[in-house]
Amino acid sequence: MADGATLEQQLNQLQEQQAAISAGLNAMNEGRWLAQDFGAASLEAILYGLNPTWQGQISAREPLYVLPPPEPEANVVWIGSPNHYNGRAGWPVVAIVVHTMAGTLASCDSWFNNPSSQVSSHYGIGLQGQQHQYVQLANGSWANGIIESPCNWTQVLKHTENPNYSTVSIETEDLGNPNQVVTDEQYQATLAVARLAMQTYPSIAWLLRHTDISPRSRPDCCGSRWVASGRFANLARDLNLQTCI
Predict the structure, then answer these.
(1) What's the pLDDT tens digit per position in 202-229?
(2) Domains plus CATH for the chain?
(3) What are phi and psi of 38, to 5 degrees?
(4) What is this structure's pTM?
(5) Contact 127, 173 (CB under 8 A)
(6) Helices and strands of the chain, counted as H and E runs
């Protein structure tokens, strides 16, 4: 304390130092030097607050480690589709099924809104990360219902009832190009809606390709863009789900 400081000045300085210590501790608990989230531009600024005579004697340091990226956020736009079951006929929801669109997100919106198409999915994910929803999670979509031999579906649920009752389906935009790269934005958006589904149905334990259910008519869905690229395996890892591959 400076000589001759009043009691009020001393108390103010102590409060500033206490705030600086708290901010510093919070920053260190985050494992980093930077402390913007705690009311200071940096840990150096906190230390200067503790002792202004250190000005010019402290050098900046790199963060002790890089914080992990934030969790992807769900930002779903409701589109809707008349093509769905009301409810799930009492069957448990156990799997998420990933598809590739063989087209654009806009064409998928239109096709799923057409009653004569007799097809739908719960979600459609664009290459820029757009998240469209066509069917409420409480209802079965019309995307996965054709069981074909040899089929991995019976390994998953051990019954031959309509898989649409027990799955959440996610279509992913590919512009009609089977080799279209799964962009980071598309991956993160797919991860986000899959986590929404798992929050609704903690019983989900599997991540499937459409070909796991319909290997003859859909041998290339969700395709190499997901599987050979490693994106499918990464998605299963990030969701902590089992696969058939």
Answers:
(1) 999 999 999 999 999 999 999 999 999 9
(2) 7-54 (no CATH), 76-239 (3.40.80.10)
(3) -120, 25
(4) 0.74
(5) yes
(6) 6, 6
